[in-house]
Amino acid sequence: MSGTKGQLPFWLWANQLGQYDKNSSTIQNFSFNAFQKQQIGDSDFSYQVGLDLDLLLADENDIRFTQLYGGMSWKFLQLQIGAFPEEEVYAGLSTTNGNLAASRNARPYPKIRAGFNRFVPVLTDWFFINGFYEEGILNDDRFVKDTHLHRGALYFRFGQPKSIQVTAGIEHFVMWWGTHPVYGEFPGWDAYFKYLTASAGGSNVIEEEQLNAMGNSYGVYQLEFKKAWDKLDATLYISHPYEDHSGMEFVNYADNLIGIHLDFNKKQSSLKNIVIEYFHTKNQSGAYLIGEAPDENGRGRGIDDYFNHGIYLSGATYNKMAMVSPLFGPVVIADGTSRGFESTRFAGFHLGSDGLFSETLQWKALLTYSNNFGRHNGQGGTTIEPSRKQVSVLGQLSWQPPTKKLTISTSVAYDRGSQYNKGVSTTRLGAMVSFAYRFSK
C-alpha cells in the first residue's frame, strides 16, 4: 500500500488492528494467519486458538504477532487468554465497530477475559444476559509504563428479532497501577477495589488521587434495537460515552454515536449492507469545570475530555493508536510515547455499504465527514480554532473464484482536510493491492 505526501489516507490504516502506521508512505506486509475453533469430542467443551504473524516492510520494519490467543468454552461460559480483537459487527462498515470506547483500530493488547460466549436465556425465550470480566496490561511504550486496564461489560436483551429485540448494556474501563516517570509506581492489587469503584485514594497516593478517583475510569452505555423481516434485518444502535458521574448521569446527553445497519439477507445481492452513522462528542458535560454542592462530594461537571487523562497521559491508546473510535485524534506523540488525543470534540456522519457485482466480484465503499474542534480549554473556548474539517473516502473491489481459496483485492482511498496535517488543508491519495490464499477452511 502507498499514500501521497508522506502518509496513508485514513481508511487505509484505520480499524486495521493497528497493523499499519499512517505515517508510512509505503508499506509491504506479509501476514500468516491461523485460527481454529473445535469441539472436544461429544462433550460440551470446545477450544479456540489463533495467531496473526505480520512482517512489515515500511519506513520502520517490524515483525510481530498482531494476534496470539487461546481459549476454552464450556456450554455458555468462556475463558480467553492472549491478544485478541473485538468481534466484528455491522458487516465491518461502522467507524468504530458500534462502540465508541472499544474499536478494532489498535493492535489487541494481552488480557484475560472470563464470561459468557453468547447471550444466555434466563427462564424465558425473551430475556437474555451477556457479559464478561477482563484484566489486561498495556505493555507498549507509553507515559505510565505497564498500565493495567480493567474492562467489565454487562448486557440485557429483551424480545426476538421477528417482533423487536432490544439490547441494553454498560461497559466500564479502568486504567490502574503502572509506573509514572515522576511519581514512581502507583498502588497495585492492594488498591484494586478503590480503582474499580472510582474511590479517592488515601494518604499514601499522590495528591491528585487523594482528591479525585484513583486511576482513569471511562466507559459507554450501549443500546440497540433490532427488527427482522424476510428480506431485511434493520438495527438501530447508540453508543453513549462517559468519563465520570456527569456522563453516567447523562449531563452530556448530546454526545452519542447513532447508527443504522440494514442487512438485506441475500447471499447474492448487488447491495448487501448499508451503515449510516451520526457522531457528536462536542458537549462533554459543558465547557467549564463546575464543582457541585458538598453533599455531592464536590463532583465536577464539564470538560470531560473523553479518553484523555491528566495522569495516565497516553490516554486510551495502545502502540500510539486509538483503542477507541479512530475519529479521536490525531494521537499526540512526544519523546516516542503517546500523549492522548489532540481533538476529542467532533461531529459528523459516515456512510458505508457493500455488495456483489457478480458471484466472484465484491465491492465496498466508505465515506466519512468530520468537523474537529480540539478540546475545551476551560475558558469557554476550544483548543483548535478554526475547526478542522476532514473527508475520507474508500472504494474496494475483491475478486474471489468459486473455490474461495484465493482473494485478490484492490483499494483506492482519498482524504481532503486539515485534521492530519496540523491544520493545513491537504489532499491525500492512496492505494492498496492484496493477495490472500486460504490453505484450509
Percent of residues in helices comes to under 10%
Distance between the termini: 27 Å
Secondary structure class reads mainly beta
**Strand coverage percent:** over 45%
* CATH top level assignment: Mainly Beta
How many distinct helices? 4
The rough form would be described as globular
Poorly predicted sequence stretches spanning 5 or more consecutive residues:
292-298
**Total strands:** 27
CATH topology label: Porin
Query: What gyration radius follows from the Cα positions, in whole Å?
Result: 22 Å
Major sheet attributes: 19 strands, antiparallel
Q: What is the mean predicted local confidence, pLDDT?
A: 93
Domains (count): 1
Q: What's the architecture in CATH terms?
A: Beta Barrel
Characterization of this structure:
- 4% of the residues lie in helices and 48% in strands.
- The protein has 441 residues and is mainly beta.
- The chain has a 19-stranded antiparallel sheet that branches.
- The radius of gyration is 22 Å and the shape is globular.
